[in-house]
């Protein structure tokens, strides 16, 4: 799978002002895209009630792709999304409108499948009708070279885990965020390592918004990516609230080719250019406590913690989070439960397999 990821945060008001200069030729807004693969230049034009906002042409992805996923936030429910692939057939090199699934809070995702695979650059265009309610944000455009369908159906092991959670973590179960059921039985997972991610999505501090984001992420993972469930085992919001994703005894879908035995923990937000969210003190304490608990429960070392970019070609979990991996490992090691307790839990893990659901 080749991944091209970029983010644009664009307040529509400056863009409208920018568009006032269009008589002089095309105004361009260029955003620093380091360390991301896609070059971004934005142009905006005003046409009566329409605002047309385009990205520049991306670099060609390194690998051939046949599908793209886009997710972000759109200004209102009459915004339309188009993509173009200048290097492919004449049909796809003109604008193709893509169906978007948009929530009340503006979060949207879209998936587009082409007739044939290729390595064309990509252009993205938004046409905004009427009054913008919110900013336009593109969190990611990803190219995928094969349709992913996650295979499940194995035995899943469980610990009765959540009752053994350490104090200091505020945990929200799947029922608390009104999760959908997994699409099928999961494959089993025996945790032996941990990987840290960011969601490359909304940074949320309110419980209501975090629950909306959890539901958005699950829908995007199940319906766009074709996975059984949300890909991560745990997700932590800006206030350090911890949300249950998949059961730890189920194999995750968060690091292509490296999911076996791998617990995926994601911080809500976007931790590199151009958004540069910063992890809060509460978030960092929660992630350390969570890693301490997982380490104790499954007899693994916090030293196994990696960033997603150590495993796949991705900017995840972002520069501002990646540089905190060592402090997180150290803090987790300080609060890890005693080996004796961990051993008892390990025994439980071995002896009490259950099948989900
Ligand atoms: Zn990741």
Task: Give your account of this protein's structure.
With 357 residues, this protein is an alpha+beta fold. The protein has two domains: 8-144, Jelly Rolls; 161-351, Lysozyme-like. Helices cover 20% and strands 25% of the residues. It is built from six helices and 17 strands. The strands form three sheets. It has a six-stranded antiparallel sheet with strand order 2-3-4-10-6-7. It has a six-stranded mixed sheet with strand order 12-15-14-16-13-17, covered by helices on one side. A five-stranded antiparallel sheet has the order 1-11-5-9-8. The model is unreliable at 1-6, 11-40 and 342-357 (pLDDT under 50). The structure holds zinc ion. The site of zinc ion has 5 residues, from loops.
Radius of gyration: 21 Å
List the total number of helices.
6
Structural class: alpha+beta
Mean pLDDT: 78
Largest sheet: 6 strands, antiparallel
> Uncertain segments of ≥5 residues (pLDDT<50)?
1-6, 11-40, 342-357
Distance between the termini: 30 Å
Order of SSEs, N→C? Answer: EHEEEEEEEEEEEEHEEEHEHHH
The quaternary organization reads as: single chain
CATH C-level of the largest domain: Alpha Beta
Based on the structure given, which CATH architecture of the largest domain is correct? 3-Layer(aba) Sandwich
